[in-house]
UniProtKB/TrEMBL annotation:
Keyword Plastid appears in the UniProt entry: no
Residues that span the membrane, as ranges: 7-28, 34-52, 59-79, 85-104, 116-133, 153-172, 184-216, 222-240, 309-336, 356-385
Keyword line: Membrane, Transmembrane, Transmembrane helix
Domain of life: Bacteria
Keyword match DNA-binding: no
Species in which this protein is naturally found: Spirosoma endophyticum
UniProt name for this protein: O-antigen ligase like membrane protein
Length: 406
């Protein structure tokens, strides 16, 4: 696997398996799922022996906490819920891609190759999204029941967002740090805003606008910052006051949420998953595992609350991470976000921080931080961050020794 070309092919296929082939409906339930499971399982197996590197700095401890929590949750769901080992493993295989971080670190995988692969998948995402949007009455990549017409536009939350948003943040980063291919990076940057608005999800729009705004004003002088922010706020105010159907859809949704207050379905769901979902002290600390399999008592339990109360784990963000994988997994995520703020990055790699901040900004009411089709993108981002951290640390040490010798 250390051969460079075979390693690239391995990762390329691993990504498409991890994002579940963009939920391509034509292969759903086919023999492809067995290939997918086997391939991901192989990736996990070759990564497990490398989970204990000699040094435990940077992002290693947080990823270890999350990985161990997921592995342990497989057995927790068996012991406390009676879910079979097969169902528990099958339900967890997509989130176990966290351990791929250790394989990438072990083989010292090329950052440049990862960036190219991510961009390829980001562009594929764009084409497939617009194709599905133009054929919203066909279930090529989505369940037709998930299509929402109530927000002023055909709302399609297309699967595999992780690679797309890494591509988008990479684009705004490269746009301001590279002299070549400006048109390419500018186009991808614009598409980041367009697709986000078209998906009409408030927390996504908020997060993307905040990160774009921060990126383009952070290096400007105070006068330019005030002018730029004022123009953006003025534009936002103008759009909010317009009769645009998308804006009206967002406004109606926000008004309904405000009226619901404490009765808002996501507030009630989060309260339930925090206080009443877990049956034992063990579950309250170590989680309950991933519900999977129609015959599983645990799966039936979660389905009951979805059907009768509308309590979806996917709607409660980090609370779902706690409910499934326990407090140590949540701690792992928190440490990643803290380190993304503390650990410095070269200017041309700021997109790594932006993506992790995007996950943070959307982590309370959406599944972006743990959604299986997003996780491989998160793993790649954290690996690149770790790689740069270690490289900068070595360079700093060499520089210090050189100064001492002088």
């Amino acid at each position: 696997m250390k051969n460079k070309s075979s390693g690239t092919i391995f990762l390329f296929i691993l990504i498409i398996c991890s994002i579940n082939f963009f939920e391509f409906q034509a292969i759903r339930g086919s023999i492809v799922k067995y290939f997918q499971f086997g391939y991901l399982f192989l990736g996990v197996l070759i990564s497990l022996p490398h989970m204990f590197p000699k040094k435990n700095d940077g992002f290693i401890l947080p990823v270890q906490l999350i990985s161990f929590s997921i592995i342990l949750s497989i057995f927790i769901s068996m012991v406390t819920w009676g879910q079979s080992f097969g169902d528990s493993l099958a339900g967890s295989i997509l989130v176990l891609v966290w351990v791929i971080f250790f394989y990438l670190k072990h083989v010292n995988f090329s950052i440049r190759k990862i960036e190219k692969i991510i961009i390829i998948y980001g562009i594929i995402y764009l084409f497939l999204y617009f194709f599905q949007f133009l054929h919203s009455d066909k279930n090529y990549f989505i369940d037709l029941e998930s299509v929402d017409q109530s927000r002023g536009i055909t709302r399609i939350v297309f699967p595999g967002q992780g690679v797309f948003y890494v591509t988008v943040y990479m684009a705004i980063n490269k746009l301001t740090t590279q002299k070549r291919n400006k048109w390419f990076w500018a186009t991808l940057s614009i598409m980041g805003i367009v697709v986000t608005v078209m998906q009409v999800t408030r927390q996504y729009i908020f997060a993307v606008v905040i990160i774009y705004l921060y990126h383009f004003v952070k290096d400007q002088n105070l006068f330019k910052k005030i002018g730029f922010v004022s123009c953006v706020l003025g534009l936002v105010f103008y759009i909010i006051q317009s009769d645009n159907p998308i804006v009206e859809g967002l406004r109606d949704t926000q008004q309904q949420t405000a009226e619901d207050g404490a009765d808002y379905i996501r507030v009630r769901a989060a309260t339930f998953f925090l206080t009443d979902f877990s049956h034992s002290p063990i579950n309250r600390i170590l989680g309950n595992g991933e519900p999977y399999g129609e015959s599983s008592p645990y799966y039936k339990y979660t389905t009951y609350y979805i059907t009768n109360y509308g309590y979806w784990l996917a709607d409660v963000g980090l609370v779902a991470v706690y409910a499934m994988f326990g407090v140590f997994a949540v701690l792992g995520y928190i440490l990643i976000w803290v380190k993304s703020y503390v650990i410095k990055l070269p200017k041309n790699f700021l997109y790594l921080r932006y993506y992790l901040w995007y996950l943070l900004l959307t982590s309370l009411t959406s599944a972006t931080s743990y959604l299986s089709s997003n996780l491989i993108a998160t793993v790649l981002v954290v690996y690149i961050y770790q790689h740069i951290y270690e490289k900068e640390k070595i360079n700093s040490l060499i520089h210090t020794k050189y100064k001492l010798n002088l």
